[in-house]
Amino acid sequence: MSATKVGVIGCGYWGPNLLRNFAENETAELRWICDADPARVAAMGRRYPAARTSTDYQKLLADPDLDAIAVVTPVATHFQIAREALLAGKHLLVEKPLTATGREAEELIDLADRSQRTLMVDHTFVYTGAVRKMKEIVASGELGELLYFDSVRINLGLFQKDINVLWDLAPHDLSIMDYLIERQPDLVSAIGSCHIEPGIENIAYLMMHFADDFIAHFHFNWLAPVKIRRTMIAGSRKMILYDDIEPTEKVRIYDKGVTTNRVGPDREADYQTLVSYRTGDVWAPKLDSTEALRHVVGEFLDSIRSARRPLTDGQAGWRVVRLLEAAQQSIKNGGQVQSVQ
Q1: pLDDT digits over 177-221, tens only?
Q2: I need a surface site. Which of 23, 199, 280, 315 has the fewest CB within 10 A?
Q3: Contact 278/256 with Cβ under 8 angstroms?
């Protein structure tokens, strides 16, 4: 089978990483490099001389031999470029978040289905060895009944001018949660503050309520003195701590929990409830150390060849975008609880 011919639109912060992984994948042929900045295009062209270069993405759309396109541009441009690419018959990989609105995401999903083209979103963390191992543990039932999801993603910068901290950082953790627990919240509330750019939140706190007693909490911050990427998933039997900054033991499983025993018939009497704490072993599973983007590119290319839906398909992208929309509306309304549509 011939190699899938791929073009990348956008060579800023993330684009060069995708370029490298496409160039290194033996089932792909890096055919086009595109960016609005001529200097970036020239620099990437020197690195990958076999690829064609352009500052006009329309040239990629007009190439009948180009099979697929990766869109790695600002969020506000995702929908227009992605829509044109699908109409041109190209398979599509879009950087997170998929679109700026849920309605745009729905239109891309419908267009991809009607044109029988792959639509995939680059939810990179879903493809990390740590998150895939966590998925195995959650799916096995080893944690017991899931109780909560708590995540902190903070650092000093990088400040964005087109999107706030929520739209910049939250897609990582929302996609992780979506992948791990496979259920969606019904209510969302969020608050945020703008300290640098008026109208662009650089700190945000997000709460999610689910149909049962499961809850989720997130903290995103561009104004922290330290870099923290830490997630806890608690179950009735065991708990997971995921620390992405930890160089070796990124995932730890704690055999810890709380057991309650009632000693009387009156279930309303709190004093008749005895609480005992269980403390067992702590262990760190072996993780796949392969670069996540290598798996992202591999999944994209394989889904095209196999004519199947990728793991992080358009629906996964839409689920994250609709949560972002609800959270943003809550911030706008001063933290008012929003229903997830």
Answers
A1: 999 999 999 999 999 999 999 999 999 999 999 999 999 999 999
A2: 199
A3: yes
- Confidence (pTM): 0.93
Q: What is the CA radius of gyration of the chain?
A: 22
CATH of domain 4-125+291-312: 3.40.50.720
Selecting from 3.30.360.10, 3.30.43.10, 3.30.1330.60, 1.10.287.3510, what CATH number does the domain 126-288+323-339 have?
A: 3.30.360.10
Separation of alpha carbons 99 and 116, rounded Å: 20
273 φ/ψ angles, rounded to the nearest 5 degrees: -100, 125
- The answer for residues whose C-beta is within 8 angstroms of residue 64's C-beta and 6 or more apart is none
Q: If you count them, how many residues does the chain have?
A: 341
Domain ranges across the chain: 4-125+291-312, 126-288+323-339
| Cα gap 328→151, rounded to integer Å | 18
Any idea which residue has 């953790």 for tokens?
173
Cα-based distances in Å from 134 to 152, 230, 237 = 17, 13, 15
Which residue is associated with the tokens 């180009």?
A: 66
Q: What is the pLDDT of residues 222-261, one digit of tens each?
A: 999 999 999 999 999 999 999 999 999 999 999 987 776 6
The separation between the first and the last C-alpha atoms of the chain, rounded to the nearest angstrom, is 43
Domains 4-125+291-312 and 126-288+323-339 share a fold: no
Q: Which amino acid is at 263?
A: V
Nearest to 69, CA basis, from 110, 17, 34, 107: 34
Report the interhelical angle of 15-24 vs 38-47 (nearest 10°): 20
How many CB atoms sit inside 10 A of residue 55's CB?
A: 13
